[in-house]
Amino acid sequence: MSIHTGTSGVTFNVTEEEEVERQESNIVVMALYWKANSLGGVYYLHQFRELYFLVDTKNIDMNDIVTGLLDQIQPNHVILYQHIKIEMQDSNIFNFQKGKQELIQWHSQHSTTTATETMTSSSSSSMAASPSMHRITNPSQSQLEPYPVISDNDLIKQIYFQLSCIIPMDSFLTISCVPPLFQYFKGSSAHFGSQEVMYVPPDVLQSLEIFNTHTHPSTYQKKGRESTSLFNLLNHTVTPGGTHLLKQWLLRPTLKMDLIKERQYSVAHIIQMEKKGTGNSKYIKKILGHLKHVKNMSRILGRIYGHHATITEWHQLLKFIYHVIQLMDLLMQSPNTSAPITQKVLSVMDPELLKMVGQCINEAISFEDSHKEGRLTIKAGVNDELDLLRSKYEALDDYLLQVAHDMSTALPTEVGHLLNVVYFPQLGYLLTLPSNAHDLFPQFPLLLGCDLQFTTQDHYYYKNERTRDMDEKIGDIHGMIVDKQIELIQNLSVHILQYQAQLLQTARVLAEFDCIAALQNNYVKPFLTDTSNELTIIQGRHPLQEHVMDVFIPNDTYLGDDGVTCQQPASLSSSSIVVASESAATVEAKAATTTPTPGDSAPLSPTLPRQPDQHQQLNRVLLLTGANFSGKSVYLKQIGLIVYMVHIGSFVPAERVVIGLVDKIFTSIQTAESVSTAHSAFGYDLMQISQSIRYATEKSLVIIDEFGKGTNAVDGASLFAAVLNEYILRGNKCPKVVATTHFHELITHDILPSDGAINYYTTEIMCRVMNDEASDSTDNTHEQEQVVFLYRVVPGTGLGASFGRWCASLGGISPSILQRAQVIHRQLSLNEDAYQIPWTEDDQTHYGVLDKLLAQFMAIRDITSQCTQVQAIMDRMTTLFST
């Protein structure tokens, strides 16, 4: 294969070995399984060693989604269920259980960790085109002999848990597609590697709001909209590759400290450039302006390889090369090129190669003529043969006019001047005569030896010996021009694809630069330590919540190795604490009978019984108590998000952060109920806690929000205490645990350890200080109690009150309901076996009227004759119930 650029005869050759290698590198194999109106699928990209899993999709039009998948993925081998009568595999091979076993054996055979160790690394995973598509990088295709039986073996459970973090293992049809796909690759010599990444179960992504895609209400709108989420907050990327790579970073937080520090240094460099002045700010904008022209090069080069690239895609490739060269020149002018990302970009880019590729495209393709003709057009002067064909085609009109003049001499003058010779691509050369002239001289065909080819409303078209000779000698000149241009474009494609690896590598490093630039913010750089298991957050903030609140109150977090102490900041000193003289139960009881009064200016005081020391001992378990509405759940998510952001290399919203690497994050915050799973809300909570107990290590972070609330209070409290005790008994193997609870009796009855094994914290509130002896009276008409949530997390155990009825008043619950709730609460607190909901004065009045109406109705003897009285009673009842 060759391409000639101009008349100089410069030729680029591709060997057969290179062609075979390139074809093998572009293998795309897909397995699809359709059953019971649901579709599952798996596909493998050999070029990038990536295995994608499509979450089972239900209630769809199979033709639409399969056509869409084929158009987007463009597989060159499709494995389908035999029942569809398109292909080839026995239906028995599409087996869910066998698919799980294949994946478990695949992972156990090729994981870099030993079988007996607690696994701390995983095959990399990322998001494909949508959040419903999951990926494994570098899948293996080794011989998978006898399948292991999934049992209670701890190793099998660990492997299954690891796979569930990166693969939709509950997607029945998708996992059923694994065996045929693996069978297709049996005997392949491909290897797969692993990367050190944090294990993040799917429920963690949901509870921490890492991704939060809202689908469009229209079934015809395929794309969803990313709402408030960490990805949406950080995604300021300007390239498709940057957006995709940022998703990968968020799906696979890294455990490589060097990589995290490299990203942090690069982010700091860009932030520093942005803050140095107006000139540098414009410098960053110029860089981003060039990055905007970096399109999806993998897709463009794939289209070029398949000879499906459009004019726009070729133009995008040329613009990519131009802007990459401009970007490199801009980076070379930077006052500081020592940033890792800058060094990486400059080391990967080859300006001479890019200029050569760009020159080949620019010298070969005329984009102006291509847009006019609607197809790729080669410039003049690129190929002598093409230029000759074009010159013949341009002179064709004059030649055909001369041929028509020669043949018209044999015809009468009134007919001869109407004769014409035309050329149609693919049909060749034809004699044409208007219909009215043909009617005037019907013997015309016999005179010139013509054969009628076809007619239109206005003309007759013929061929004779002269036009057939022109077909042989001149040929379909337009078709030859098109074919020659296609040949030259294909040769150009082959030449360009020789540098596919370099172009893709350039696009990848620019995507990484785009991600680094997107991570610049007003946050602070966290300090990573490999000498301790510490987690210290000073004045941390929730990165999402602070953007939707007018004022956000930051809080501190102290977790780490037992026995280590850290100095509390002045904001937590005991001098700022005033103990209320009224019990929390009394305040909460009074709140039940009133509604909030924002304008009340009565003095308020924080309620904190236990005072902290200036030097707080670090423990691995932090227990947070406090009232409802006081920010406990936000605080838990804030810790998880800050830890998460550290492991993608981002700066974090805090004044100071010191953190050791966290290998896993487990949460029990949000219950994801679904009719497709046979689990109740409490059952789902139990599954989350069970996973954390089974797989958490001393470097893991476990976040528990009010575990036990879904069952009987005694059972829930006992389970919660037992779970915390299980973690504490592990000693140095205990993970970092942050938990909240309303089971305050576990603290007051010393069921939880009070020997310093747990750091007790509470959310600070303020309530009116009252010394009124009659505060227990139900007559609260003269008191307007108010509770103010300060949203500060401080050391202590709190008052043990949830202030649930006060929160209910804030939520709009009517005072009458709250009043009844207060009475019931008092009776339950006194352990009374039975209680009656009291009537209010309005209730007594209503029921008194109803009794009178009932007596009047029963006194009626003949409804027919006394219908007026019956109607009056009914009208009175209607009026009574409508008020």
TrEMBL record:
Residues 700-716 form the DNA mismatch repair proteins mutS family domain. It comes from Absidia repens. One of its GO terms (molecular function) is ATP binding. It holds the Pfam family MutS_V. It comes from the Eukaryota. Belongs to the DNA mismatch repair MutS family. GO terms for cellular component: nucleus. This is DNA mismatch repair protein MutS. InterPro entries: DNA_mismatch_repair_MutS/MSH (IPR017261), DNA_mismatch_repair_MutS_C (IPR000432), DNA_mismatch_repair_MutS_core (IPR007696), DNA_mismatch_repair_MutS_sf (IPR036187), MutS (IPR045076), P-loop_NTPase (IPR027417). Residues 114-143, 591-612 are annotated as: Disordered.
